[in-house]
Structure formats: C-alpha cells, structure tokens
DNA sequence: ACATATACCTGACTTAAGTCAGATATTTTA
DNA sequence: TAAAATATCTGACTTAAGTCAGGTATATGT
C-alpha cells in the first residue's frame, strides 16, 4: 500500500537519474569542469550576485571565488562591485561569455529535443512531466503582478476560456461575457496576478477595479497539472492583499455552478452569497467579501 | 510549439534534479564515499559479477577494483572466483554488508516517504511518475515467464478484471467467465508472461494450452501508464514465440468490441476473425492465427 | 603445447571538488 | 570614529574520482 507508493517513487528516481545524469553530461564536453560550467550557466540565467550564486549552487565561498576567477581568466565574465554595497560583487557575461552560454543552451535544448523525439506518446509524457515538475517545485511557485495583455497572461486566459467552454453546459463565448478592460486590471485601479512555477505560467487571477471602494475578482484559473496544491487559495489571498493595498473595501465575484471547486473555495474562505449584480449570461452564483 | 515542449522538458529536468540530488545525498552520511556506497548498493540489489557492476556503474576497471577492495577491508563483502570461469570474480554481501545495505535501503525509503508525505495529491503525482518512469525506461522493459499465481501476476490480473468491469457495458464478473486453470498457463502446457519496467509489473499475457496443437491467448493487459509504447505488441510477439517453442501450431483468442485498441492490434498482426468457439458470455469477437 | 585473448588487479599519476584558516575591503553599529 | 560585522578573496590543504600502463591468472583456439 504505502510501501507500493515508496517503490514507485524510488523507481521514478532511478528512471530519471539516468536521464538527468545525461543532461548533466551535456555540461561537460566543452572543455571546462562541471563546476565552472554550472557557474557560467547560472550567470547566463540572470544570477549575477556572487552570494546568490553561492546559495543557488551550494558552493563554499572559496571554491566559488576560484571558479569565478577561472571564468574571468577565460574572458567569459567580468565582475564588478555591487553599486549599492561595494563589498558584494556582481558577475556579468562578456560577449564571449554570451556565446559560450548560448552554446550550452543549444546543447541542453538538443538533449531535450532528442528525449522528446524518442517518445511516441509525447503529449501524455509532457503532461505528466508538467505535473511532476509543478508538484516538486511547489515551494518555488511565485505569484507576481503582470500586465493582463502580456503573452503569459494571454496564455492563461486562453486556457481559462477553453476550460469554461468545456465545463459550462452552454459553452462559453468571450464576446458575450463582460471582458474586462485591461486598464481596469492594472494599477492603480486593479491588478492582474500570474502564478509561475520555474517561469511557466500555471495560474492567474484578475482584480478589476473602477477606482471606487468596490472591485471584482475575475479570471481565477489554475492549470490542470497544478491542481490540488492549494494554488487557487494562494492566488485569492494574493488578490485580496493587493485589493487591501489599493484601498478597496468590498470585493465581489460571479461564478457558475459547474465550477464546483471554485464555489467550495469561496464558501470556505469567507465569501457570502449575494443577489445577482450584473446581467452577464454565464454566471449563476454571486459572492461578496468585505475586507 | 516544439520550443514550448523543450522548455517544459527542461523545466522538468530542473525540478527533478534537486530531488534526485537529495536522494543521492542519502547515499552519503554513512561515512563512506559515494562510489563505494553505490557499489555496495548495486551488489545488494543482486549485481554480483564484477563486470556487470562495472558496466552498470560505468566505472573504470581499476577504480572498480579499488572500491571492491575497500568494501572488503570494511568486512562488508567477500569476492570469490566465478564457478564457471575463474578469471571472473563474484562479489557477495557478508552479514555486516547485508546490515549496511539494509540501512541504505531504509534511508532511501525514508526519503521517498518524506517526498510522498509532502504532497496532498499523492495519487495523481504517483500516476504521473509511473508514466514518466515507464517512458524513460522503455528500453529496459523486460518480458519474462512467471507463475500465473505469483503476487505480480495477481496484481496484473486484478487490474485487468477491474478494467474490463469499467469498459464492458455489462460489467465483468470473473466467476462467470472461464477463468483458466493455472496449470494450463504454465509449462509444459502454456505459459504466463509479465512485462516489468524496473521490477514494476506493467503488463501481462497468458498462453493457455491443453497439451494439443491449439492454444489460446488470454489476459492481455497493459497498465495505463505504459500504453502507447508498443508494449501490447511486444507481449503478443513474446507469447507467439513461446507458443512456437511449445510446439503449438494454432492460436486462438476471444475479445470484446469495447476493447478497440486490442481488436486493432489483432487485425494488424495477422489474426483472422473466426466463428465463436466458446460460450463465454463476455466476448463477441473471435480470432485465430496459424503459426 | 603454445600463442593469444580475457578478466581482474596494482601502482603511479592527474584532476576536480571541497574545506578551512586567515587576509582585505567595505559597511554597520555603538 | 572605533569596533564589529559582512562579503569576498587567497593560500594551503584533503579527499574522491578517474586514467593509464603494465602485471597476473585463467581460458580459448589452433
């Protein structure tokens, strides 16, 4: 029972170790020890400060320093004192460093493409990988404000509309619903929050304000591979915090009885059901929460 | 599109590297370098021959030899010449070695249990992990003969019956079907094959003979996480090979129109539809293949 | 029976990785 | 402004890992 689960997890670990090891290997093969390659790649991925590099890679400060020196001698990076605190130092790629980093990226992409090409059922595999990656990286899910017209926001909204279309008995047509103006979901009137796991957008929520003390929660969505991790609740909490920050006292939202998990969440987190407050054709449940 | 897939695979790799690294760490912490610990564990998992250890762990022969010596000096293993070829050597755990191996196993199990405990949606996660592990370990799927009454065989059969119950419009009750006698699915009359990925049973097929030149294929099943990898075809090929080996000339099988993938497989691999040859209530399609 | 191949071992080496005790420069605190 | 704290660096180490050229014992082919 539970030993079966443990066996399955260990099997997963074994299966994945071989693949991951191979990906690690792609960091070799450019004539540079693994440690130096990892530092170069971390810098390429935007981690400039030496302290943050040390934390991320889990290296001793002496070792870190030496690795930076060796990359500097190769002409791949330069280090400068931090503008706010001259004790700290910040590393940045030189032009040669950018090229070398791009070469590593290309290697990693090739390895990933190769792996994908080996599998006939690529879609199922990718979905399963997303689920595992999101679950394992749960502590690292970040919720941040974003422009509701950004690419990632549109990705979320498209998925949200598609899901409504599947789940509502009537289907869903955005043009019939009240599509909020982008400006109403941006500061200072409102905001739009995206949850990302390792950069991949996996959930969103909009706060649509009109400048008054009342605002609406819109577009709460969590991608299927991230459900069951309490993310919807975290998104709602973040939206409420943003609303307080914007001086909003009363929040409202509308929903549909087909969205059972959402209704359950609202009822459990202090929302009270109120009368219909708009003539949108899709919602049949209306809620309010005083902050 | 495809770059999205690559991004997702790389994200999976990043997420998993951290976990796998932590599991690796559990191999430290018993006062022994990683290399020696890995050798000890490989021996504990039944890999006794020095050559096979070397292949499995990818180590140089000199290094391998030294690691074996260090384990020997610790009193954890003994090495003996191979009975068939005195140039080769075989390593085996001593009593102390068995205890030390058990301690490593306990550590690994604890790590896995810990990981599992961290996740509310354990079941979905496990299913996704199974799928990923099976896909990644596809080359390592082994098909072997087994007693049809073994624990792993029962695991497969139970899952098979459950799936029939779900998929047949009428449901499925084993007791109404012709449950084959175990002896008919064992040599010399027939056989029972189990497909395992890294030890986990993921598919099966039975060959039920009566001692004559005709036999029946029964109980073809592939677990959901392993579908789409061509495993059913491999199982059927293995069953046919076993049938030839047993001197069987004519194979038959029955199936149900709800099992569309199976019917498709039979039609594509040289089976021809024939008249009903039994009075089992569930099947509505009957096939034959001459070897 | 001999040469050749195979399987493993030993010794001498290189390299990467990691540790630790100061040294240096800068910032913060009293 | 002096003392303490912080961030990084340098030099001197240790250990693990890996490589390579022989060496020994056993097996195989002619």
Question: What do these coordinates show?
Answer:
The structure is a homodimer of 291-residue chains. By secondary structure, chain A is α+β, with helices and mostly antiparallel strands. The first copy, chain A, folds into two domains: 2-118, Arc Repressor Mutant, subunit A; 140-290, Aminopeptidase. Helices cover 46% and strands 21% of the residues of chain A. Chain A is built from nine helices and nine strands. Chain A has helices at 2-25, 34-44, 50-57, 61-73, 95-117, 122-136, 151-167, 231-245, 260-268; strands at 77-82, 85-93, 141-145, 191-197, 200-209, 214-222, 250-255, 272-273, 285-290. The first copy, chain A, has a seven-stranded mixed sheet, with helices on both faces. In chain A, strands 1-2 form a two-stranded antiparallel sheet. In chain A, a hairpin with a 4-residue loop joins strand 5 (200-209) and strand 6 (214-222). The longest helix of chain A has 24 residues, at 2-25. The first copy, chain A, is globular and about 70 Å long. The mean pLDDT of chain A is 90. Chain A binds a DNA duplex (30 and 30 nucleotides) through helix 4 and strand 2.
